[in-house]
Amino acid sequence: MAPAHFHPDMTADLPEPVRRWLTYAIAPGTPMLLSVELATHGQIRIGGWRGYTAVQETSALRGFVWAANARAMGMPIIGFDRYSRHTGQMRWRALGAIPVTAGAGPDVTRSAAGRHAGELLISLPAVALSPQVKWRAVDTGTIAARIKVGNGFHEVTLSVSDEGALTSMVMSRWGATGRGSFAERVFGAELGADATFDGFTIPCEVTAGWDRGTDEWAGGQFIRYTVDDARFR
After folding, report:
1. Which of 10, 62, 117, 196 is the most buried (most CB within 10 A)?
2. Do the domain assignments include residue 11?
3. Is residue 180 scored above 80 in pLDDT?
4. What's the structural domain count of the chain?
5. Are 184 and 174 in contact (CB under 8 A)?
6. Residues spanned by the domain of 32
7. Could you give the CA distance from residue 201 to residue 47 in angstroms, rounded to a whole number?
C-alpha cells in the first residue's frame, strides 16, 4: 500500500506546538515514510573523544542498526548497536578481531528501546502522526510524546522554536550507572542546524548523552555528530 501524503490538516487535532513543528518539518505532499538511512560523522567518547563515521538504518516498525568506524590508540574500532526483533545488542572490536565491548540481555534491550523512542521522533517526523504516539503540550515551546516501543512506553520531551524547529530532547532512559548495574537516568540531546531531505526537515547537528539539564551534562555527553545525508523510504 502506498503511503499517505502529508497535508497540514493531518495535524488539526494536535496541540499547537506539535502542529508548528510538523508543518515546519514535513513539506505538503511528502509521502509519510517511516524508515530512513542516515550517514553521519562526528566524535564519540571512547576514553577521549575520537572521530568516527557511521550509517544508521531506523524504522518505526523494525528498530535500528547503527554501524560505525572509529580509531583509538591508533587502532581501527568497528562495531554496531541495534534494537531489532524486540532485543538490543552492542558489539565493538579493534582491528576487526579484538573485543572492545559487547552487551546483550534485558538491560541492554531496555536501554536500546529508549534510544529508539527518542531517535524516532528526531529523525522520522512522520512517526509523530502514528497511533503509537500520544501528544500533550507542556507549554508553548515544549511538547511531550508518549511513544510505544516493543512492550513498553517512553515519554520524550521536545523543545520547539518559534519557527517550528526542534532544539532539544530529554527523556528518562534505562542506562548503565558505571557500577555494573542499570537504572533510570536522564538522557537527552541538543539539536541544531536543520537540513531538508526528501521533504523532511530534521536536526543535523546533534550532541547527545546522559544527565541532560543537570550539572553533570558536560561529563555525560558521549556523542556529537553531523548528518551528512538522509534517505527516507
Report:
1. 117
2. no
3. no
4. 1
5. yes
6. 16-228
7. 33
